[in-house]
Design goal:
Rossmann fold; 218 residues; two-stranded antiparallel sheet; single chain; 39% helix; alpha/beta; 9 strands
Length: 218
Amino acid sequence: MCKQEEHRQIRRFSNCAVIVAHPDDETLWAGGTILMNPEARWTVVTLCRRSDEDRSSRFFRALENFNATGAMGDLDDGPKQSPLIDCEVQNAILSLLSSNKFDLIVTHSVLGEYKRHLRHEETGKAVLTLCRGGKLSATAVWAFAYEDGGGKHLPRAVQDADIHIRLPEEIWQKKYEIIAEIYGFDCQSFEAKITPREEAFWCFGAGDNFQKRLKNRS
C-alpha cells in the first residue's frame, strides 16, 4: 500500500479507541499512528496496572502527549499469567470505555505481538468477541500486526499486513521519547529495543470472522 493510500485509510476515522493490556502497549504498537492523526479523537484504555502508582502516572502523562483521554483497569498481571475468565476481560473493557460506539477500534491481535504474553491475546480476543456480539460497535477494527518468528527475533511489523506504515523520523523520535522518557525504559530494555519504526495492522469490518482469519496465519 502506498503512503497516500495509507493516510486515506487512517484519516477517514474521527472517533477512535485503542484497547490494550498494558500501559505502554498503546505507544509501542500504535503510537506513531496516533501521533500522525491528531485531528482524531483518541480514547485509550489499558486493562492492567492501575494500582501501580508509578506506571499509572506515566500512562496518563503519555496520554497528554497523544492529546488523548483514557482509563486504566486492574486485571491480574502477575508473573504466572494465569488465564483470565473471558467475561472478566470483556466486562473490564466495557467498564473502562465511556461509549461503546466508535469509528475505529485498535487492539491486540488474538495471536499477540510476540511469543508470548497471554494478556495481549486475551485482550484481542475479548475486543473481537464484543464486536461480533454487538456489545462494541465500530466501522472498522484494526489488530496489531507484529511477529517475532516464534521468539527467534525481536517483534517487527508484518510486511504483508493490510496496513503497513513506515513512520517519519520525527514521529518515531517522539514515539521513542514517550517510551524512554515518560515510561522510563532504559535504552537496553526490551521495550526500547523493539520500539517499531514501522507500524502494521490487520483490518476488519463488522461482519468479518476476525479470529478465524488471524489464526489461519499461525
